[in-house]
Prior knowledge:
This protein is α/β, with parallel strands linked by helices. 41% of the residues lie in helices and 14% in strands. The chain has a six-stranded mixed sheet, sandwiched between helices. The longest helix is centred in the C-terminal third of the chain and has 23 residues, at 210-232.
Amino acid sequence: MVQAAMRLARAVTGRTKILRFEGHYHGWLDTLALRLPQTPQQAGPRERPTLIPHSPGQTAGALQDFVMLPWNDLALAEALFAEMGDEIAAVMCEPMMCNTSAILPEPGYLEGLRRLCDHSGALLYMDETITGFRLGLHGAQGRFGVTPDLASFAKALGAGVANAALVGKRSYMERFAHDVNHSGTFNGNVISMAASAAGLAVLEADNGAIYHHIEATGAALMTGIREIAARLGVPLLVQGLPAAFHTACTNLPAIKNYRDYAFHCDADRYSRFCVAMLKRGVRVIERGIWYLSAAHTEEHVEKTLAAVEGALQEVYRSQS
């Protein structure tokens, strides 16, 4: 879907450049995959981060049409558009940065990107692979009140079955029926579409009442983790939204961009925390992101919080 969105944006605008953001993930294809820098030197200047191919086998020119900026810095985006706005076909982003931490857009940031696209003629594309139908029935764009020109959905959309969708304004999407190619053996797969229809019906029931349960469960878990960390006196940051939040071993008051996440968090200690949690019967993702689902209950929260307390005691006691 990301590949289709880029092709469509370039067809609509007649331009080639795509603006994307440090730490955002949009797939592993040759023309998309970037490796996350492990040191500030690898990352390059903050004002124009270095583009690093993700894997051997990518061609040297695969990433030549991307421009990179840090997330949540509207001034830098405005400066870039002043310099080369007439070359940019699309702004591509995770509307809430989930793959590396759970970083919400700063107030006015998405609105600013929307304004820059409108002024320059570029398309705003939101990759809602993670946030779509997770943050609510209307995804991140509904949560934050900004409508893109194009958006892609997957994961929650499929209700456990592989499925994905690219959506957008009619005048743009109609190009697929005329001159922009989007072929695929599994396009419109009947089983996948049936699963999505059934899953969305559950999410839509009672005007999305299921999301109230997800929000309450996630909020209780976030609050409990914060309280345990405070009681133990350990620097564990909890941030994000109840349906998708992040924890990190750091003294930062907040993680605002990729460099905060990569260079100011104790990844080794958090990895040991994940192992300690696993020994207590709870699996958490090593990069720190936590996802809630409608299947999680108060009992799951209680068990998880007990594991968090034991794991934090183990990890910090061993390093004291």
